[in-house]
């Protein structure tokens, strides 16, 4: 049942489920449906019944129970005091633009080795109305250049296929027993997903505009591209980038993302991405490209854990860092040394032309990042 067809009284219940998902709670659509059914069965006689139904069906994790209670108070009672107090913790916030493949869309010169990197949250806004880049050719070539995989779906073929026994027998029956040419089928070859994870922290502010333009071209050129930004929060921006006009798309992204030019919590935000099953599924079998300087000010153990888990899901995991544009660059930080053996690629992310060439080459095999950087050093 669509949201428009629901009774008016059900809107706050549906809205509460959406609110929890926006803040990273693993709430499935079936749980929201169960929540509304439970409230119906209970009457409800009081708000306590709604509260008990929410706890029983939406099942907040024990370590986030206080946050769940704060959201319940804010949503149903308008009491934002507890919610504001909860914002002071280090919990990574997740923001989903709500888009899926089925839904329609409404229409400083040098980098000083990490001095701009910080772990503190700082919210801000961006303006992307500047243009000029030459990404049209990249957009045209992308779909054909991505790595491919064999789908479980099949298509008819005249050569090099397996016998389609069911349809061949149907043809024999329709031809009164004559034996026509056998019908063959083969498995389709489809492009793999492309997942871009873009660092929008303060240390990357010189490159954010170009990366977002590249992301827009990727979404327009590939049917199965997914884009996320991260800094101190995680935001899915794919739906906004499906708007054909780039200026409109980037204006919508600018309004959607809250943590422009702030601190960096790369490890926690990537772990937050992996903690949401729907997001984690985007990485399965995909070509994953992280656009970041990887200057993690926090303990790099969380970053290493996240990169290893991403690598286990991805077809190919690449890190494009603008720091590699300096000929003297070496992956010498503790974080880079820890994740280098897991990466398939560690490449220069300082220019759009270099990045587009790299993404268009993802289907071609290359030595592992650790082997290349051992030779360089």
TrEMBL record:
Gene3D superfamilies listed in its UniProt record: von Willebrand factor, type A domain
Domain of life: Bacteria
Residues covered by the VWFA domain: 191-361
Pfam family, one: VWA_CoxE
InterPro entries xrefs: UCP010256, Uncharacterised_CoxE, VWF_A, vWFA_dom_sf
PANTHER family named among the record's database cross-references: BLL5662 PROTEIN (PTHR39338:SF6), BLL5662 PROTEIN-RELATED (PTHR39338)
Name of the protein this chain belongs to: VWA containing CoxE family protein
Organism: Mesorhizobium temperatum
